[in-house]
Amino acid sequence: MIELKEKIADSIVYFLKDNGIDFKRQDILVQFKKPEKLDFGDIAFPVFRFAKDFRKPPVEIAGMVKDFFESNPLDEIEKIEVINGYVNFHISPEWMFNQLVSNLNSKGDNFYKQDVLKDKTFVVEFSSPNIAKPFSIGHLRSTVIGNFLRNLLKALGANVIGINHIGDWGTQFGKLIVAFRLWGNEEELEKDPVKYMLNLYVRFHKEAEENPELEDKAREAFLRLEKGEEEERNLWEKFRSLSLKEFEKTYKRLNVHFDKVLGEAFYSDKIDRVIKILEEKKLLEESENALVVKLDDYNMPPCLIKKSDGATLYATRDIAAAIYRKETFNFDKMLYVVGSEQKLHFRQFIKVLELAGFEWAKNMEHIDFGLYRFKDGKMSTRKGKVVLLEEVLDEAVKRIRDIMEEKNPDLTKEERENVAEVLGTGAIIFNDLKNDRIKDVQFSWDEVLNFEGESGPYIAYSYVRCNGILRNAESVKESENYKATHDSEISLIKKLFEFKEIMLIAYNNRKSHFIANYLLDLTKSFTTFYHNCRVIGESDDISSFRKMLVKLTMSTLKAGAEILGMRLPDRM
Ligand code: ARG
C-alpha cells in the first residue's frame, strides 16, 4: 500500500509540476485520507489548498487531476471519482488480490514482515515484576503490551532487545532478610516461595508498627547487602532464584520471551559512576538528608539520588541502567512499558539524564498504561487488594474448559485441556490488548470469554473455522486467478490488504488495539463473506478463488495473533 501511495503521489507531483507548482512526494503523502465510506474508494486526495495556485474552484482542480490520471493511467487504479474537492481513487481489488497472493506464495508465513525499521535498534523494557512479590495484574499488562511491541518491532524489521528489569534490589530486601531471620524457615520457603515471602513481608510491616527498631535493622541489612556481605547476599540470591523460577512458569503460559533478564541489582556497581557524573555536572544538592537533583525549573519535585545512609534508590538505578543500555546496545529508541502511576518517575529521571548532557535521553519513551477495573467484582475480593495473575489465568482456563465440555464433547480430554489453556490465556491477552492502553481496562468475564463477541476466543474460533473449511475443500484445486463475483469477496480482499498498513499505524502509536480491532473487523468481514459465498460446490474457478481467500484470511489471523502474542488452536 505504501508503495502504491508513493506511486500515486509521484504522479500528482508530476501533474502539479506541469502546472508550475512545486511539491514534494512527502507533502502529498501526508494529505492522503481514507474516504469516509467504503463506496468512496480507498484513497482520497483533497485539493482545496491548490485553489489559490490554480485560481479555480476545488471541484475543477479535482477534475483536472482525474483527467491527468486518465491519460496517464496506473494499473493499480480501477476508477477515479471526483467528490467535491476530493479526488477519490479506487484501487483495483484484482491488483490487491494478486499482491496478497504473490506475497504469500513467495514469503509463506513471513508474508507480513516488513523492513521499515531495518537497521534500527530498539530496547523494549517490559514485565519487570518484583522479587518476593506475586505477579500482579499490573505486571501482566506490562508483560503483554511489551511482548506485543517486541513482536511488532521485529515484524517491522527492527533489531529488538527485550529486557526484563526485575525488581530485585531496594530496601524491601533488607526487610525480607530481617523477617526471614526472625520467623522464617527454609523448608516452608521452598514449598510455596512467593506466597511465603509475601507473608513474611506482611508480618514485618505489622510487627514494625509496634517495634520500630525492626526498620533500623532492615536498613542495616540492606546496606550490608549493598556492600556484598556474604550472608545477606546468599539469602537474597535464594529469594531471587525462587521467585524467578515461579515467574518463569507464568512467562511460559503467556508465551513470552526476553532477550535479557537484568534486574535492578545488576546496576548496583554502576551507581558510583552515576553519582560522579551528576557531581561533575554540578547537579547534586543536599536536601533533607539526601542527595537530590532539583527539578523546580521543570515543575517537578526533586529526583532522589542517594539517601543519607548511603543506600541507593530506584531512580539512580534507572539512570545507571539507561547509560548501560545505551553503551551496550546503542539503541535508537528505548521503550519502557510501565503503568501510568510511574509517569512522574520517568519524567524525572529522563530529565536528569538530559541535564547531565546525555542527548540520547530524548529517545527514551515511557509507554504507559491504565489499571484493571473488575466489573463483576469477583476477582478482587477474595485475597484482598492484589489480584494475582495466576488466579486470573486459571479462572479463564477453567471457564473455557467448562464451556468446551458443553459445546464440544467429542474432543478427547487431553485435547480439551490443551485447547482450554491456549484459549484461556489467549482470551486474557486479547482482552488486554484490544484496549487503548492509556485507558483503564473494564474487566468482565462475560466479555473476555464471549465466543461471539470481541474476544480472543472469537478470533480463535474464526481461525479454526478457516482451517476446517480448508480441510473440507481439500479436493478443490488451489488457484491464483482472481474471480470475484460478490461484493463481500471484494470487501474481504480490501480488509486483508489493510493489514500491513495497520501494523504501521500500531507502530506509530505504539498501541496494540489497532491490530486487535483490525482482527475483529477481519473476522466480521470473513463471516459476511462465508455467509454469502460457498467455497465448495461452485464452478472450479470460483471455488478455487474462494479457497484462496480463506487461506489468506487464515494466514492474516495467524500473523495478527502472533504479533499480539496469542497462540491459536488448530481445532476446538
Ligand atoms: N519493578 C517495578 C514495579 O513493579 C517496575 C519497573 C519499571 N521499570 C523501570 N525501569 N523503572 O513497580
UniProtKB/TrEMBL annotation:
Sequence motif 'HIGH' region, location on chain: 129-139
Domain Arginyl tRNA synthetase N-terminal: 2-91
GO biological process, one term: arginyl-tRNA aminoacylation
Catalytic activity: tRNA(Arg) + L-arginine + ATP = L-arginyl-tRNA(Arg) + AMP + diphosphate
Catalytic activity, EC: 6.1.1.19
Coiled-coil zones: none
Gene3D superfamilies linked: Arginyl tRNA synthetase N-terminal domain, HUPs, Isoleucyl-tRNA Synthetase, Domain 1
Keyword set, alphabetical order: Aminoacyl-tRNA synthetase, ATP-binding, Cytoplasm, Ligase, Nucleotide-binding, Protein biosynthesis
ATP-binding keyword on record: yes
HAMAP family: Arg_tRNA_synth (MF_00123)
Similarity section: Belongs to the class-I aminoacyl-tRNA synthetase family.
Protein name: Arginine--tRNA ligase
Gene name, Swiss-Prot/TrEMBL: argS
